[in-house]
C-alpha cells in the first residue's frame, strides 16, 4: 500500500506549505490538525488494517431527529482536545 501512495505523490507538485493527503491524493495546507489527521489515517490503515477505500474525509451523517422527526446532518471533524 505504501508503494502505491509514493507513486501517486511523484505526479503532484506541492508548495512549501502543503502536503499530499494520503486518502484523497489532494494537496492540503500543512497544519497541526492536518498532520494529526494524516497520522490517524495512516495508523488506521497500517496498524488496524482499514482499507483506504473504506475511509472518507469530511464525512456527513444524515439522521432523523427523534424529537422533531426532521432529517438533520452532522459533519464529523477531527477536534484537538
Give the N-terminus to C-terminus distance in angstroms: 31 Å
Order of helix and strand elements from N to C terminus: HEEHEE
Radius of gyration: 16 Å
Mean pLDDT: 86
How would you sum up the major sheet? 2 strands, antiparallel
Strand order of the largest sheet: 1-2
Structural class: alpha+beta
- Beta fraction: 15-25%
Number of helices: 2
How many distinct beta strands? 4
Low-confidence stretches: none
Question: What shape does the CA trace take?
Answer: elongated
What is the share of helical residues? 25-40%
Task: Give structural notes.
This protein is α+β, with helices and mostly antiparallel strands and 81 residues long. Helices cover 28% and strands 20% of the residues. The protein contains two helices and four strands. The protein has helices at 2-9, 32-46; strands spanning 18-20, 27-29, 60-64, 71-75. The strands form two sheets. It has a two-stranded antiparallel ribbon with strand order 1-2. The chain has a two-stranded antiparallel ribbon with strand order 3-4. The radius of gyration is 16 Å and the shape is elongated. 0% of the residues are buried. The mean pLDDT is 86.
Amino acid at each position: 500500500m505504501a508503494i502505491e501512495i509514493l507513486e501517486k505523490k511523484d505526479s503532484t507538485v506541492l508548495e512549501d506549505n502543503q502536503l499530499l493527503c494520503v486518502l484523497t491524493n489532494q494537496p492540503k495546507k500543512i497544519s497541526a490538525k492536518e498532520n494529526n489527521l494524516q497520522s490517524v489515517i495512516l495508523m488506521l490503515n497500517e496498524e488496524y488494517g482499514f482499507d483506504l477505500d473504506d475511509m472518507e474525509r469530511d464525512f456527513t451523517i444524515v439522521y432523523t431527529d427523534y424529537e422533531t422527526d426532521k432529517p438533520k446532518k452532522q459533519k464529523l471533524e477531527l477536534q484537538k482536545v
